[in-house]
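User: I'm writing a short methods note and want a consistent example. For B-cell receptor CD22, I'll paste the sequence; you return only the structure tokens, no commentary, since I'll be parsing the reply automatically.
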Amino acid sequence: ILVFLFCAGSPCMNVTYTHQSICALKGSTVDISCFYTHPSWHNVTEVSWFSKWETGVTNDLSQDPEYTDRVEYHRQTDKDSTLKITDLRERDSTEYKFRFKTVHAEWGYTFSGTTLSVTGLQVEMTPATVTEGQRVTLDCRTVCTLTDNPNPSYIWYKLGQRLTNQNNSLILNPVSSEDAGRYSCAVEGFEDLHSPEETLTSTLVSVSPSGDIVEGSSVTLTCSSDANPPVQSYAWYKNGSVYQSIFYGNTEPQQVFSQIKSSDTRQYYCWVSNGISTDRSPSLDIDVKCE
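Assistant:
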């Protein structure tokens, strides 16, 4: 609690802020409150809240276009004030101060107020580079600790659908291709405020043409992935070894056999990288038949 006093041979004028700092969730609503006192003969003529002190701007927030339809002033007594801000945005992170005027004085706007930090949710994946069969943990993070909910319960979603029976951390052990998809989280009680999605990519190898593969025919293997950001490089493997006929780290997703041979009968898979993480496709069996 911050208390600022002004005494000059008469009863004090003061402003008391309930919180020095507040951390709130992006998209939610926050209440910033204070109490103030003044001599009984000082009739209050105006109360207001401000921000943007670093620029010297002291316009009432209720008149600020950035806060249009998002701010309200509330009071329970004649000596308290609460600033309510709805639909919080990250740019709302700043210091807020209260001011009141009487017929004799103006007070409250020159000292520190309440600093608001607005945080979004982020999904953190461990390890950052995922290999099939590993233990993968997804954690929901905020930049600062939520003032009204310092130990929140999190809800997890896959492809926008709520997952059941999950703890605050989502554990995939072992992770498989069936776990591929887009994951997001939300704080319980604020289910409509999702984090950005974190994608576990689904990487597959397909063969064209489909059907029987005959020796001497043209066959194309294609490595596809829904990685976000998009894949930057591909690496092909044949029976567990790097396939030397393909440049390792190729930027093209295809391997073309212009005249496939019976010796090309093997298992093939690809690794992809988007510069952030890597992923491996399941193996694809190629059986080349003789004419």
